[in-house]
Amino acid sequence: MRERKAVSSLVLPKVRFFNFNTELFVQAFPGNPESVGAIDASFISKSGRKTEGLGWYCNGCAGTSQRGIEVSMISITNLKSNTAYALDAQQTIDEEDRSRVDICRTYSQGRLNTSWSWH
Description:
Elements: H1 2-10, H2 17-28, E1 35-45, E2 55-59, E3 64-78, E4 83-91, H3 100-112
């Protein structure tokens, strides 16, 4: 928890990156473009003992579980340009009595259930 507070204190005033990045996408692609939301997890190798969220995660490149941290990225993909644009990222932190699928579902639903306002 200490690290999260340290990083968040550097971003003053608080910027709502999801809202900001979503608005950038809407401005860049006016007129309700064909797009889909996506979520993808990335593995980062870590060896320390005090890193928040340190655990065993799937490393797709190695094809096995390894010790490290995981970061989930929500993006919106423009189907015409076949390009994904990052909207938000969040580190996966295990919670007692919740699976990682449940944690990911809650994260993505909280972000992707946004009403889009196309200009």
